[in-house]
Amino acid sequence: MKRNAMIALAIACMLVLAACGGNNGASSGDGGGNAEGAEEPELRMLMQYSLFDPNEDYMAKAITEKTGFPVKYEMLPAENADEKLNLMVANKEDFDLMKLSAPQFFKLATAGALEPLDELIDSYGANVKAAIKEPSWQSSTIDGQIYAVPETGSGISIGEELIVRQDWMDELGLEAPTTPDELYTVLKTIKDEKGVIPLTGSKDAIFGDISAAFGIHNAWNETDGTLAHKAELPQMKDFLTYMNKLYSEGLLDSEMPINTTPKAIEKFSSGQAAMFRMAWWNAPGLVKALEQSAPESEIAVIPYLQSAEGAAEVGISTAITWYIAIPKASENKEAAMRFLDAKLADDVFKSLAIGEEGVHHEVKDGKYFPILPKFNDDLNNGSAYMTGTNEHTYPDYWQARVRKDPVLQHYYETFQANAEAAEIIIDPMSTAPPIDAVSRNTQKLNKLLTDAVIMFISGSRDIAEYDQFLEQWHAEGGAEMVASANEWYQSAGAGE
Amino acid sequence: MSIRTSLSERLFNGCNIAFFIFFGLVTLLPFVNLTAKSLSSEAAVVSGSVNLWPVGFQLGTYQYVLEDAMFLTSLGNSVLLAVVGTALGLFVTTITAYPLSRLRLRGRKWLLLMFVFTMLFSGGLIPMYLLMQALGLVNTMPALFLPAAINVFNLLIIKNYFEALPDSLEESAKIDGASNVRTLFRIMLPLSLPVMATIALFFAVYFWNDYFTAMIYITNQDLKPLQLFLKELLVSSSSEFLKDNVDAALNTTPQSIQAASILLATLPILLVYPFLQKYFVKGVLVGSVKG
Q1: B contact residues 178-197, partner A, Cβ 8 Å cutoff
Q2: Contact across the interface for A292 and B43, Cβ inside 8 Å
Q3: Is B51 at the interface with chain A, CB within 8 A?
Q4: What's the whole-model pTM score?
């Protein structure tokens, strides 16, 4: 960790140095190019880490074939990615395109390392413009200028929901709980009768189904046109009191604060725990493991719990995951934009998202199904190469990825259906542009909150002290963050 | 000849032996556990039912890893790095250590001080990166072994060893007309095999285990050494990394394959140890006891 701190410090110095008159010695200015795409310059693209060789993949070849642009791909490391990125940007490495996470994008954009794209999009980006919806553009606009092509993922989809050992529920004659109170009774019965951990989970899974039933849906929540962070919600105390009750009566895994997700999956699939909030993408592994350790077992999904008012609600963030930016240091800015545009032409985009019909995918009842193993062999890493998606068509295309595995598909579809039966509440900050005070404080304050919440739940801090904690949270940047968020929300026309 | 041992001595020995067997087992356990995991079915690993013995025996993980182009490329890189790096490191360190070990070298003290200075102070990461970039070494193999070719600590060990060799050997070589270079390679080196083997092992282990240098200087997939590949394999499967990245979560590496990769990556360097062990023990003793 000391090393990380040193790197961070060093990079801070670096950025300052680079800002004062960058002397770019070694720009390799590749005039050579490659014989195939003689007309288009070779582009150099920086990707996020993924475990495959980006220059050998089917996708790399398909993209060059469809667009005519030869591209050289490089990846950020899996660890210390931000530091490495800063190092490369400070050295003016001549990347033409960068796929950035939200914090990375914001940092580079405000540091002046990224090219404003408005003119390039107007001149060369007709497809880009058509593919991306207005709210997404907002999120990459800083002071009226667009600094990146925003890439949404799979559209609105719910990731996690509580699952339970239905065979035990049947054995004990229990019904699926619909409210926190019923949940308490179910957990209590399971503990008394079966002697297993009633509810397990990991540290990141504290908020979710249960907190939603108390009215805590998202990181940001709107009431009467005003935004409040979840830490500030009055419901928080009720939620913590409830969780503390579960914890102190042994209904919540006492190791929850130190569990990792695989550990929680292990506990559920080995029969040590009865209930767990699962992400659908973990379903295939978990189901297989449980089948092996307890062949007679059965899993059921618990529909989203209702609040005291009888409303089942589920929170979701639709924030942009990736930003595709053109760095100022690029020597092929115009070509880079033409490349992005070519990738978003309807037919090209479709073939890059789900391959060729009859080869990689087939259409059944208007839905796209992958043809295996060809789909996996060729397109498994497709998402990593995405540079902006067609927001109108991609959610449909993307679901082909979920239909790779019947178990995966089952849980994905069940979760979505349950969410639709409940009310989906979108985090109002999802479409916010990068806001300095928010970007700067979010990570730190989330950690502060998570740590405190764990202490409140485990009883090592009394819930009566919550107001004191909130004061500290506000003082350490929370107040500033909430004020900035509201400033944006009001100016954007509260609630649209 | 038998030496009588008192009760307390035997007791002490017994405790010692028990203690070391215990610690030996403790260090061995993770390997056994990993081996068992790598040989078990993924379902068994996920449910945590694998401890010291495989559950649902299979060898598919090893087949998968050994057919994985990225694993093989990076294995090749690591072997190349370890061999070239060790050879170069040993050569450069030796030819530097020899003159520094000779009292007749003028300014020896100051030269030594300059080397020792770099042990305590270095330019730091960013200047190093700038230097490497200016030299055109970023994303090349030499970036991984050139900066580490001289390790001052190793240099001092070799220098001390040379100093301990009797001066008369060198004198008689000189009388027979040997040049400095000849003296080094024909007289000093054959007498220094233990220390050479030790330092070679130091270098080899360093180059084999180093992932940090590669993480800084290498982004080209084809040049990544094995440890970096391994690091990225593990980090990219961690829940921290997968949070908010559904597409990556859909493509995670099964835990049994992770275990097999770790074992296969550790094995080669483990195999080197037994062959160098006898030199190793001698080499580490350098300078401790003078006969």
Answers
A1: none
A2: yes
A3: no
A4: 0.82
pLDDT band at A234 (very low <50, low <70, confident <90, very high): very high
Contact A78 B231 (CB under 8 A): yes
Please give the domain boundaries of chain B with CATH numbers for all domains.
60-284 (1.10.3720.10)
Report whether A252 contacts A457 (CB < 8 A): yes
Residues whose CB is less than 8 angstroms from the CB of residue A398 and which lie 6 or more positions away in sequence, other chains included: A153, A154, A155, A353
CB contact under 8 A, A50 and B251: yes
Q: How confident is the model at residue A302 (pLDDT cuts 50, 70, 90)?
A: very high
Is B131's Cβ below 8 Å from some Cβ in A? no
For A286, name the nearest residue in chain B, comparing CA atoms only: B46
Pairing of strands A361-364, A367-370: antiparallel
Cβ–Cβ contact B243 with A under 8 A: yes
Residues B217-255 have pLDDT tens digits of 988 888 999 999 998 888 888 877 777 677 788 878 888
Q: End-to-end alpha-carbon separation of chain A, Å? A: 44
Tell me which of B73, B212, B224, B239 to substitute to probe the interface with A (most A C-beta atoms closer than 10 Å). Answer: B239
pLDDT at A35 (0 to 100): 40
Of B42, B221, B239, the CB nearest to A285: B42
Is any Cβ of chain A less than 8 angstroms from the Cβ of B216?
Answer: yes
| pLDDT (tens digit per residue) in A90-111 | 888 889 999 999 889 999 998 9
Q: Comparing B288 with A258, which gets the higher pLDDT?
A: A258
Beta bridge partners of A275: A164, A199
Cα–Cα distance for residue pair A72/A11, rounded to 1 Å = 26
Asked if B67 reaches chain A (Cβ–Cβ under 8 Å), the answer is no
Q: Which of B58, B126, B232 to mutate to test the interface with A (most CBs of A within 10 A)?
A: B126
The distance of A217 to chain B (nearest Cα, Å) reads 17
Partner A contacted by B118 (CB < 8 A): no
Is residue B128 within 8 angstroms of chain A, CB to CB? no
Count of CB contacts below 8 A, A vs B? 130
Domains of chain A: 35-155+320-391 (3.40.190.10), 160-317+408-491 (3.40.190.10)
ipTM of the modeled complex: 0.77
Binary contact (B219, A26; C-beta < 8 A): no
Alpha helices in chain B (DSSP H): 7-38, 42-46, 60-67, 69-101, 108-120, 125-134, 142-145, 152-164, 167-175, 180-182, 189-191, 193-209, 212-217, 226-235, 239-242, 246-250, 255-284
